[in-house]
Design brief:
275 residues, globular, mainly alpha
Length: 275
C-alpha cells in the first residue's frame, strides 16, 4: 500500500512538471504570434502574420531551429497530456457531474486535440515536404457545406466559436484563473501582473474567437467557404488595411500578454493530476 502511494505521488509529480513545460511551450507559441503581429503592425517585417504552425515553421528555418521546434513540441505534449487528464478525470473539480462540468470536460478534450494537431504538424515541418494531399480549411468547409445540413453544421460551429469568444471576455472580467494560482508563493507584484496579463491576454483571444465565429456564420449564411478564417487569417484582416493596424498591434500585445499569462501558469498554477 505504501509503495503504491509513493508511486502514485511520483507519477503525479512528474505529470505536474511535464504539464508546466506544456504551459511554457504554449506561451512560446503565443508569444511568437504576438511579436510577429506587432512587427507587421509597425511595418518592421513584411512576411505577414502567422498562427501556431506558422510560428513553428519560422523557428524551424533558423540556426538550430529544428532542434528547438522538437523541444517545443515535446514540451507542448505535456499540455496535451494535462488536457487529457482534465477531460477524463477533471481532478480540479472532483465530484462535479453537472451539465456545465460535462461541457467543461468536452472543452478540455477539444483543447487537447487542437494542440495535439499542432504537435503533429511538426512532422511535416521537419520533413520539409508538405503533403500534396493536405487540404485547406476552405476546402474542408466546402465539402461540408455541399452536404445535407452542412451549412447548418458550419454555422453551428461558428456559433460555438463565437460563444467561446464571449466566454473568454467573461473570464477576462471575472479573472477566476487567479484561483488556480498558488498565491501564497507569489509576491504582491506577481499577483498584480498575473491578473493584468491574464485579463488582457484572454480578452485578446476572445476577440479572435469572436471574429472566427462570426466569419464562419457568415460563410454558412452566404454559402461562401472563403470566409472561413483561421487565427492567422483573422489577424491578417487588420494587416491588409493600414487604418486598422492599431487593432493588429493591440491584438499582438494581447497575445504577448497571454504568453506571459502562460508563463505564470507554468510557474504558479496548482497542478494536481491525481486527486
Amino acid at each position: 500500500m505504501i509503495k503504491a502511494e509513493i508511486n502514485e505521488h511520483l507519477v503525479s509529480k512528474w505529470i505536474s512538471i511535464y504539464a508546466r513545460f506544456g504551459y511554457g511551450a504554449k506561451g512560446i507559441i503565443y508569444g511568437g504570434t504576438g511579436l510577429l503581429a506587432l512587427s507587421e503592425a509597425f511595418d518592421l517585417t513584411n512576411g505577414g502574420v502567422a498562427g501556431s504552425t506558422g510560428i513553428l515553421k519560422a523557428i524551424a528555418i533558423r540556426p538550430l531551429g529544428k532542434l528547438l521546434v522538437v523541444l517545443i513540441t515535446f514540451c507542448l505534449m505535456g499540455y496535451v497530456v494535462w488536457r487529457v487528464i482534465q477531460a477524463g478525470w477533471d481532478p480540479e473539480h472532483s465530484g462535479s457531474k453537472g451539465f456545465s462540468d460535462i461541457v467543461r470536460r468536452i472543452g478540455y478534450g477539444c483543447s487537447g486535440l487542437v494542440y495535439a494537431s499542432i504537435a503533429y504538424s511538426v512532422v511535416e515541418i521537419l520533413s520539409e515536404q508538405p503533403s500534396e494531399a493536405k487540404r485547406s480549411l476552405e476546402d474542408w468547409a466546402y465539402e461540408i457545406m455541399v452536404r445535407p445540413v452542412g451549412r447548418l453544421l458550419v454555422g453551428a460551429v461558428g456559433l460555438v466559436f463565437f460563444g467561446i469568444g464571449c466566454y473568454y471576455f467573461y473570464r477576462a472580467i471575472k479573472a477566476e484563473f487567479r484561483k488556480r494560482f498558488k498565491r501564497h508563493h507569489m509576491s504582491d507584484t506577481a499577483k498584480t501582473w498575473a491578473s493584468i496579463m491574464g485579463r488582457f491576454g484572454i480578452a485578446a483571444r476572445g476577440i479572435v474567437y469572436v471574429l472566427i465565429g462570426a466569419y464562419a456564420v457568415g460563410a454558412a449564411w452566404q454559402f461562401e467557404p472563403s470566409l472561413i478564417k483561421t487565427t492567422e487569417e483573422a489577424l491578417a484582416l487588420f494587416d491588409d488595411n493600414p487604418t486598422d493596424e492599431w487593432i493588429l498591434a493591440t491584438l499582438g500585445i494581447g497575445f504577448v500578454a497571454y504568453a506571459v499569462h502562460m508563463g505564470f501558469q507554468a510557474v504558479y498554477r496548482s497542478i494536481e493530476p491525481i486527486d
